[in-house]
Amino acid sequence: MTTRCGFAALVGAPNAGKSTLINRLTGTKLSIVSPKAQTTRFRVIGVLMHDQSQVLLVDTPGIFKPRRKLDRAMVAAAWTGSQDADITLLLIDAKVGLRDEVRAVVEALAKQQRRVWLVLNKTDLVTPGQLLPLTQELSALVPVEHVFMLSARTGDGVEAMVQHLADAMPEGPFLYPEDDLTDLPDRLLAAELVREQIFMQTHEEIPYQATVETESFKEREDGSVRIEATIYVSRPGHKAILIGEKGQRIRSIGEKARHELVRLLERPCHLFINVKERAGWDEERARLRAIGLDDSV
Ligand SMILES: Nc1nc2c(ncn2[C@@H]2O[C@H](COP(=O)(O)OP(=O)(O)OP(=O)(O)O)[C@@H](O)[C@H]2O)c(=O)[nH]1
């Protein structure tokens, strides 16, 4: 039987409903809310299985007005990520319509040769009559292959998009084995929670130069889980900072991340964190794919 597998990038202004849609498509809560804005890099945030298709939903950092150099790099990475995807889903809040912020995203997208599918979200908040003019306005700015009108909140119209996505994926083997899918969210969650703590407890470029991978995730007979995570840094100085004096910082990162894990997984967790220096980790494509990242900020 032929299988299909590919990437679908979600692009949209903040609040368009990305997280809600992902959660509906995958049935899992994966998006992490961090007090520091813009912590989201390009990564697989959901795996959608439909018929013989695996659709890897990838997130992009919120498209925002870049001020600092770093912000610009993040936005560039968002676009690069989206470029690698097979389909770009342009998510629009139908209630808000085409305000400036949205226009900027659409215009940037128009400059790139992508397969763009327009997704008008929050149809439960507008009348059908408002959707047609909005579709016309948007498709005048960027050529779109398909238009979907749906409500991520109620689920109305979502199924039609899922079917089209599944059919549009290129033929190929699944990148994530089906068996792994059950614990994939938890593995990603563990890595994300550690990364979130790096964001909160270190400064400047360190969070952006570090990546976290869950090496092993084992359920134990007593109902607890044993998790091993590795933080990869690209510079020796960063390793020392992350570990901190007498291991203080890494301990604190581990404690806070573990605390959150216990809360979200609702069972005892044992978390072991390693810090490894690996110059150029961000260029190792296979490694990046393995953790759902695909950029090189
Ligand atoms: N009525 C309605 N509300 C929605 C729908 N989809 C999302 N929302 C709401 O819109 C708000 C933003 O949704 P999120 O899913 O957090 O949006 P996001 O695009 O992930 O936002 P950022 O994380 O800021 O990029 C939330 O209050 C959602 O509950 C929808 O289809 N209908």
From TrEMBL:
It comes from Brytella acorum. GO terms for cellular component: cytosol; plasma membrane. Residues 121-124 are annotated as: G4. This is GTPase Era. It holds the Pfam family MMR_HSR1. It is found in: Cytoplasm; Cell membrane. Residues 38-42 are annotated as: G2. Residues 4-171 form the Era-type G domain. Belongs to the TRAFAC class TrmE-Era-EngA-EngB-Septin-like GTPase superfamily. Era GTPase family.
